[in-house]
Write a structure and sequence with these properties.
Residues 70-84 have a biased composition (Acidic residues). It comes from Gibbsiella quercinecans. Residues 54-84 are annotated as: Disordered. With 84 residues, this protein is mainly α. It has one domain (2-76). The chain has helices spanning 10-25, 30-44, 56-77, and strands at 2-6, 49-53. Helix 1 packs across helix 2. It is extended and about 60 Å long.
């Protein structure tokens, strides 16, 4: 998936982080605060945009590798000859 995202300056990033912290101090969950600030940025940002590609296939491969690694770890525990 390819998405155009706002290119933020360091100052704009700092302001966004401060806004997120402010919303959290007011009792909003971190996820909701991040989502709200992201939406505000999308609605009001007038600067450049950068193209970002999210590769869902890589994410699926990472999950498969993690599952495979867990299975290998489980098999190691079954070895009665293994010295601890």
């Amino acid at each position: 998936m390819i998405s155009g995202m706002p290119a933020l300056t360091h100052q704009e990033q700092q302001e966004a982080a401060e806004r997120i912290h402010q919303l959290m101090q007011e009792g909003m969950s971190s996820g909701e605060a991040i989502a709200r600030v992201a939406q505000e940025i999308r609605e009001h940002h007038q600067g450049a945009r950068v193209a970002v590609m999210f590769d869902d296939e890589d994410e699926m491969n990472n999950e498969e590798n993690a599952a495979s690694s867990d299975a290998e770890d489980d098999n190691e525990d079954d070895d009665p000859e293994r010295a601890y």
